[in-house]
Structure formats: C-alpha cells, structure tokens
Write a structure and sequence with these properties.
CATH superfamily of one domain: Cadherins
Distance between the termini: 165 Å
CATH architecture of one domain: Sandwich
Shape: extended
Largest sheet: 5 strands, mixed
Number of strands: 31
Radius of gyration: 65 Å
Strand content: 25-35%
Structural class: mainly beta
Number of helices: 5
Helix content: 10-25%
Length: about 600
C-alpha cells in the first residue's frame, strides 16, 4: 500500500455526454507487485518488503478506458518503469564464524598479516562496513582497518611476534554498518561477529642480546689483557645454535679492546689514559654458528675511571708583592690550585708551608679550606735595601687516593708603597733615586735619553751613506760616462774623423796625456818575424812568438794580449791568418777580390782605389 506515483489520462470526448469521457485505470502487467486505483490512477505497492537485492527494476503496463459510447469503450495504455531505491535494511554477515591465519614471527610491525570479509547485500553507503577487534586476547598485538575499495577487514601487526614466547593468538572481530536507518532498528542489530585464530610460524632468527646497551667501567693504566666485562646473546629458536662474538671495527679506537669469540668477555688491549679519552663507545656483533648471516648488534659503553697520578699545582703564576710598610697578618695574595687529573666532585686541596719555611718569620700560608689559601705577612715592615725578593715554598695536597702533593715556590717582591698601600715602585734602582722624583718624571727622563740615542744613530748612518754615495759617484764617472757625437762620419773611407781613444778613456780629452792602457803611436813599428814553415807544430809556433815578445825592447810596460791564429794545410782559400802576411799593406795585392763575385764588389772597389 505504499504510494509510488499517480498517472492521469485525458479523453477528448464531451464529458457532459454520457460516460464517454469517464476514464477507468487498470494494470495489465506488473501484478502482483503493484496495484492502481481505478478512479485516481494512483499506483501503490501490492506486496510488503519488496527487496531491491532480489529485483531492482519493474515495468508496469497501465490501461485507461472510457466507460461507454457508441463504440463500446475505448482504451489507451502506457508503460511505467519503477526502480526500487536501496535502504539500509540488511546487517553485515560473516560468511563463516572462524578465520584461520598463519603469520611468520619475522613479520614487521605495521605490516598486513591477513584479511577477512563480512557481506552486506545493501548497496552504496548502506553497504559500508566498519571492523573492530573486541577487547580481549590479541587486542594489544593486532589492529584492523577497512579497505574502502573491497570493504574487507585488513589485520595489521602492532607489536613483534615471537614464536618462542607464544605460538597462537585468538580474538574476535566485529563488523557493523557505518550508516544506520532508524526506520529499520526493529529489524535487529546491524552487526556480526567472527573469531580470528592466528598461528605464529617459527622462523630462523638472529641471536638476542640480554641487554639493549652494556655499560662497563675500568680504571686507567689497567694492565693489558684485564677482563672488564662480558656480553651475552642467545639463539631463542627451537633448535638452539651456538653464538660467536666480534667487535664491529670502525676506527682505531676499537683496537683498545678485544672480545673472546666464544665467551663474549671484553678485555683491554692497550693501556688506557683517562686524561686522553674518558669514554669508549663501540658495537659488538653476535652471529649464529649455524647461519652466520643472521647477526645482531649491541652498543657497548666503557667509562675510564680516573687514577690519581698527578699532584695539584698552583693554577696560575702569581706576581706577588709586599709593601715595605706592611703590617703583620696582612693578606698579600690569594692562591688557588689545579689538578691535571679529572677532579671528582667534592675533592679538596690543602695548603701549607714547607718544613724549612715554617721556621722563618717572614710569611705564612692560611688555608681557607675551600680550595683557596691566603699568603699573609708575619713581620712588621720589609726593607728592599736588605732583601728585594723572597721565595716562599707552598705545599699543596689533594684528597684523592693515593694522595699526591707538590711544592710550589712563590716569588714575593718588596715594593715601595704609600700610606694607603698603593705600590709606587718595585724596582731596586728606584732605591737610590731622590725622594722627590716621581715615577712620571723618571719615565720622561728615560724617553729623552732614548730619543737622543736615536738621533745620534740616524746622524751617523746618514754620514756613512753620504760618503758611500760619493765614492760610488766618482767610480761611475770613470766607468760609465757616455760621450755623444752628433756629427756624421764620412763613410767607410773616413778613418780620421775622430780619435777613437776618447771612447776608451774620457780623461784623455782633458789631460791629453799618454795613455797607459793602449800602445803609444811612437812604438808602433813593424817587427820582423821569420816566416813560419809549413806543418810547424802550433805549440812550437806559440813558444817562438812568446820568446820574441819577451826579448822585444819595444814592448810597452803594460799588460797586453797578443792573439795569433794559424790555419793548417788543405784550405782552398789558403790561410786567412796575418802570421804569414807581408810586412806592409803596400805589398798586398787585392786584385783577387774581383774574382769573388758580386757580393765582394764594394770591398774590391774600395781596396782597388787605395792601391791606385
């Protein structure tokens, strides 16, 4: 009886004439699903709970017929297509009550380990399902989400599985509709429940260390080979395998320790120094003997403990001074100590005078018991004339074991001070200065003396430089003087245009004296030399010319260099040396130059003219 729609037919006959325009509706096709009111044409459902999941679309054939007339009633038909709209009237149902899953224990956290599905015959959003794990066994290890495309429940792993710890898990999963229709609440609960059983599969796993991190301690300077600790790893699989250990070498620091491959004990391999490296951090790897590829790693931290091996010393070098007018008990210096060892919390340093200094009535040490001490005077006044410096030996001890101590000598200088204790002077030379001369005046005098010394040094340096420059100038006048000639020579034939001797020594121009570095013209006459025989040995030839120069009375009294050239036999142009030349140039015959070709034409013409 649910309303579907209303149809209406019109008749063109006159409605006032009989029943010709009166229309009656009926269904020719579509029963028993639908019915129609014959007068109003309203179509209604004829069966209860029509199910869209059974049939979605219906075709209903409607007839409209008038009630009379001469033609005995005329009819018209039309087809109505009716589609059922889905509503959420069906709850989801699991196809089976128990789902079995097998999951390897090596599955990663967050990975999908299985799928289950509940069926909902509805469509669209009415078929959307939400899955939830019922609180209980497995609720902390597993999670389930809905695949939006397939509406399946995807079971995921929240924590790692361990076959050796637990081999099976059982929990319940509930499937329910996301979108509920309140009109169908009476139908029943729109959800279903199924049981999931998960069996954990045993896998070959790497060894497992007993601790996530190992921390050990060792004293510095521990003998090499001393065992300082051990690591332990076990194979938790059903068929337990032996484990081997080794250090994960990454740098040279790892060489300070060794590990026993079977027992896992760690020992020192070198002497350790707390002041050099206070902590070592490295990794140890454990592998299964049955499958060396299965390994696990653990971090090891080794702290090196300090051994008291250095004595404490005064932290900084102090420049301590005492006034001549100091009073007894006056603190002139506060000292602190430092230790090269890494001092533990609460370590204390003690201060005292050495045994030999404790009997002297000059100074004393007052230990404040807070790792500081004060140097105090024991006398009423000090004199620089008697003693300018005092050396005070101070003994400092630490509180570590074994106790270390050192003697530190402090230097105390006696100074002149005013009545307020302000230091005026600490130099011993100031003792002999007049009382009325202040420090500023002394500094001014010293500055004046320094300035005078600088002026004298500069004056002497300038004098020496000037003298040196004068000497250099005079030498350069002789050696490097350049004489310029602006007149043009007469060519190759002009040999009398100027005296070439002026170029050799400029003083010849001024003094016109006989030069000692060239041969005088008065001594220039030819010397008779015997002809050289053919094939004469060069050495004999040179010795002969040397004897001639030695006995020559016309040889000038200066160093001269006589150059000789001798050419052997076989030359086509014969000898070019002047050794066998004629005595005078007039005896020379230059006609042969004309036979040497055009390149020697100018030379042949020049010597030919001189001969003519």
């Amino acid at each position: 009886g649910a309303y579907v729609l209303q149809v209406k037919a019109t008749d063109a006959d006159d409605p006032t004439y009989g029943n010709s325009a009166r229309v009656v509706y009926s269904i020719l096709q579509g029963q028993p699903y639908f019915s129609i009111d014959p007068k109003t044409g309203i179509i209604r459902t004829a069966l209860p709970n029509m199910d869209r999941e059974v049939k979605e679309q219906y075709q209903v054939l409607i007839q409209a017929k008038d009630m009379g007339g001469q033609l005995g009633g005329l009819a018209g038909t039309t087809t109505v297509n009716i589609t059922l709209t889905d509503v959420n009237d069906n709850p989801p149902r699991f196809p089976k009550s128990i789902f079995h899953l097998k999951v390897p224990e090596s599955s990663h956290v967050g990975s999908a380990i299985g799928r289950i599905r509940a069926v909902d015959p509805d469509f669209g959003k009415n078929a959307e399902i939400e899955y939830n794990i019922v609180p209980g066994d497995g609720g902390n290890l597993f999670d389930i989400t809905t695949d939006e495309n397939t509406q399946e429940g995807v079971i995921k792993l929240k924590k790692p599985l361990d076959f050796e710890t637990k081999k099976a898990y059982t929990f319940k999963v509930e499937a329910s509709n996301l979108h509920l229709d309140h009109r169908f609440h009476s139908v029943g609960p729109f959800k279903d429940t199924a049981t999931v059983k998960i069996n954990v599969l045993d896998m070959d796993e790497p060894p497992v260390f007993s601790k996530p991190v190992y921390t050990m301690e060792v004293y510095e300077d521990t003998p090499v080979g001393t065992i300082i600790g051990a690591v332990t790893a076990q194979d938790l699989d059903a068929g337990s395998s032996s484990v081997r250990y080794f250090i994960d070498w990454k740098n040279d620091v790892d060489s300070y320790f060794t590990i026993d491959a079977t027992e896992g004990t760690i020992a020192t391999n070198e002497l350790l120094d707390r002041e050099s490296t206070a902590q070592y951090n490295f990794s140890i790897i454990a592998s299964k003997v049955s499958n060396p590829l299965l390994t696990s790693k653990v971090n090891v931290i080794i702290n090196v403990l300090d051994v008291n091996e250095f004595p404490p010393e005064i932290s900084v070098p102090y420049e301590t001074s005492v006034c001549e007018n100091a009073k007894p008990g006056q603190v002139i210096q506060t000292v602190t100590a430092a230790d090269k060892d890494l001092s533990p919390a609460g370590q204390r340093f003690s201060f005292r005078l050495s045994a030999e200094a404790s009997n002297k009535p000059n100074f004393t040490v007052h230990d404040y018991r807070n790792n500081t001490a004060g140097i105090e005077t024991r006398r009423n006044g000090y004199s620089r004339r008697q003693q300018e410096l005092y050396f005070l030996p101070v003994v400092i001890e630490d509180s570590s074991y074994p106790v270390q101590s050192s003697t530190n000598t402090m230097t105390i200088r006696v100074c002149r001070c005013d009545s307020d204790g302000t230091i005026l002077s600490c130099n011993v030379e100031a003792i002999f200065l007049p009382v009325g001369l202040s420090t500023g005046a002394l500094i001014a005098i010293l500055l004046c003396i320094v300035i005078l010394l600088v002026i004298v040094v500069l004056y002497v340096a300038l004098r020496r430089q000037k003298k040196k420059d004068t000497l250099m100038t005079s030498k350069e006048d002789i050696r490097d003087n350049v004489i310029h000639y602006d007149d043009e020579g007469g060519g190759e034939e002009d040999t009398q245009a100027f005296d070439i001797g002026a170029l050799r020594n400029p003083k010849v121009i001024e003094d016109n004296k006989i030069r000692r570095d060239i041969k005088p013209d008065t001594l220039r006459f030819p010397r008779q030399r015997p002809p050289v025989e053919d094939n004469t040995d060069i050495r004999d030839f040179i010795n002969q010319r040397l004897e001639e120069n030695d006995v020559d009375p016309t040889a000038p009294p200066y160093d001269s260099l006589a150059t000789y050239a001798y050419e052997g036999n076989g030359s086509v142009a014969e000898s070019l040396s002047s050794i066998d030349s004629l005595t005078t140039e007039a005896d020379q015959d230059y006609d042969y130059l004309s036979d040497w070709g055009p390149r020697f034409k100018i030379l042949a013409d020049m010597f030919g003219e001189e001969e003519s």
